[in-house]
């Protein structure tokens, strides 16, 4: 069972508009940082920072694939549903 600290971290992550929008976009399937950056109109550096926070709490997982210029990182949701159990 996860404690209240984890619940607080998840709630904090979901309270951020950019991270919430990233989650909404990933609901339709994996995306690259370039795709997320373009759709959200934000720098890749900012998107990467937001993704890292979502990775830390287990909401998204990275996937690495060969790309045109090296390794390409895509990100996908770990689950289609996020539930906070407050017990």
Automatic annotation (TrEMBL):
<dbReference type="InterPro" id="IPR051081">
    <property type="entry name" value="HTH_MetalResp_TranReg"/>
</dbReference>
<dbReference type="GO" id="GO:0003700">
    <property type="term" value="F:DNA-binding transcription factor activity"/>
</dbReference>
<feature type="domain" description="HTH arsR-type">
    <location>
        <begin position="1"/>
        <end position="87"/>
    </location>
</feature>
<keyword id="KW-0804">Transcription</keyword>
<dbReference type="GO" id="GO:0003677">
    <property type="term" value="F:DNA binding"/>
</dbReference>
<keyword id="KW-0805">Transcription regulation</keyword>
<dbReference type="Pfam" id="PF01022">
    <property type="entry name" value="HTH_5"/>
</dbReference>
<dbReference type="InterPro" id="IPR036388">
    <property type="entry name" value="WH-like_DNA-bd_sf"/>
</dbReference>
<dbReference type="InterPro" id="IPR036390">
    <property type="entry name" value="WH_DNA-bd_sf"/>
</dbReference>
<dbReference type="InterPro" id="IPR011991">
    <property type="entry name" value="ArsR-like_HTH"/>
</dbReference>
<keyword id="KW-0238">DNA-binding</keyword>
<protein>
    <submittedName>
        <fullName>Transcriptional regulator, ArsR family</fullName>
    </submittedName>
</protein>
<dbReference type="InterPro" id="IPR001845">
    <property type="entry name" value="HTH_ArsR_DNA-bd_dom"/>
</dbReference>
